[in-house]
Amino acid sequence: MHVQVLCDSASDLNQEMFQQFSVQSLPLKVILNDEEYDDGIDITPKEVYDRMRDGEAPKTAQVSPQTFRETFTALAEKGQPFIYFAFSSELSGTYQTAKMVEQEIKEEYENARFDVIDTKAASLGYGLVILRAAELAKGGASYDEVLELGQYHATHMEHIFTVDDLEYLQRGGRVSRTAAFVGGLLKIKPLLHMEDGKLIPLEKIRGSKKVLKRMLEVMDERGADLQNQRMAISHGDDLERAEQLAEMIRETYGTKEIHIDYVGATIGAHAGPGTIALFFLNDTYK
Question: Which Gene Ontology terms cover its molecular function (predicted)?
């Protein structure tokens, strides 16, 4: 029996990708004006960004214990081995909830074979981990092979991103109110990265034109096997800049596969419209 790969909607993969790679995804929640939506199912990222531009402030909620319980139980009852690769535990409580439910299910179904893994990744960085694990699983790889490769990609995944307006990060407590105000006046664009699952400011860059160039330089410093690996770029409703960055990468490194998609509603609610994020491996592609 093949291994079932599970993830949540913070992977920012679209429904078509989930179907193509036989991935089961559990939606996080987006809350707007006291109405709750399933991320990527009941509401699109585009709708969320449009409403943010109109002044609305979305909130998000993790996958519920009940959803995990029902999903894990259904697979355990069938004797289906599965691995749930989770959104970074530093950005959401979803992983901790899944671990709690894991204990319950394993006590009830002693022969169930599954693991809950903290990827320490987000957006399409997380999505790339899922794609690689799912490809392997679909090809008939063993449980241990899927687990090992998924963990390898999670460990070596780089996240480099910038936001268009510091105000959204300020609302989430990522930067101070003063920094957001001054940054807006000076047109300062922050460059951030992920370190052990946390969002960490890397440097400040004046002017949006310089940001993409600097993202490429950071990738050059950190990346490995840049021509052959699959990369990803996610964007907060700014496809033009995402495609511009992709073209710069292709011209510089001859990279064959760059997946572009929206920063989904869960992460976009905190990063805001105009976010551009780049994901790549810092070690050899496997």
Answer: lipid binding
Structure tokens at 49: 């960004």
For the chain, the domains span: 4-28+63-155, 157-281
- With pLDDT > 90 as the criterion, what percentage of the chain qualifies? 78
d(CA 134, CA 232): 16
How big is the chain by its Cα radius of gyration, in Å? Answer: 19
Pairing of strands 59-61, 198-206: unpaired
pLDDT digits (tens, 9 = 90+) for 191-206: 889 999 988 888 888 8
Q: Report which residue type is found at 129.
A: V
Q: Quote helix, strand, coil % in the chain, to nearest 5.
A: 45, 25, 30
**Is-above-0.85 flag for pTM?**
yes
Instruction: Report which residue type is found at 123.
Output: S
pLDDT confidence bin for 172, thresholds 50/70/90: low
**Was domain 4-28+63-155 assigned CATH 3.40.50.720?**
no
Domain 157-281 fold: Hypothetical Protein Tm841; Chain: A;domain 3 (3.30.1180)
